[in-house]
Design a protein that fits this description.
alpha/beta, 4-stranded parallel β-sheet, 3-stranded antiparallel β-sheet, 6 helices
Length: 168
């Protein structure tokens, strides 16, 4: 992995937004990462080591952007992940008072839980079939919860530490 594109989650999660995940990737692993917003009519295509990103307008015109990324991470959190995050925020408030209440601002809200449920009922903004066509060209990772994404990040940190030469 040398350059990573991160998509999602939709709606943005309080515990782990794509911008925060990109910052964590960059700071902890030293990789170049950037975020892409899922949008209607978003299309991907692969051409060698690069990924093509195209947004089709309603009139049929196609604006495309060449994206140099060898890894694509899709933060596709389930409504259950949003509900767990919302409940964890309230539990933190009950157990820790004012300090927990301040931290709850970084957690999912009830509106986020409702939007995640509605998003699960609708078709995805990014078509999963597009990713099947990309798999031979880029490394594709899909995470269904913030915990899973953070665990993967910790394992990558451990892998980097294991491959570093010992300091004398």
């Amino acid at each position: 992995m040398r350059r990573i594109a991160v998509i999602g989650p939709n709606p943005s999660s309080g515990a782990l937004s794509n911008e925060r995940f990109v910052r964590l990737l960059s700071s902890r692993l030293g990789l170049e990462a950037f975020s892409l917003r899922p949008a209607p009519r978003l299309a991907f295509a692969a051409g060698g080591p690069q990924m093509q990103l195209a947004t089709r307008a309603a009139a049929g015109s196609c604006a495309s952007t060449r994206v140099d990324a060898d890894t694509l991470i899709w933060l596709r959190f389930s409504p259950r992940a949003y509900l767990r995050d919302w409940l964890a925020g309230w539990l933190d408030t009950l157990l820790n008072g004012a300090a927990g209440s301040r931290r709850r601002a970084y957690r999912a809200r009830l509106a986020d839980v409702a939007r995640a449920c509605l998003a699960a009922l609708q078709s995805d903004a990014v078509d999963a079939r597009q990713f099947d066509a990309l798999r031979p060209h880029v490394l594709f990772l899909e995470f269904s919860s913030p915990d899973q994404a953070l665990f993967w990040l910790e394992m990558q940190e451990e892998r980097v530490r294991e491959t570093e030469p010992p300091r004398l």
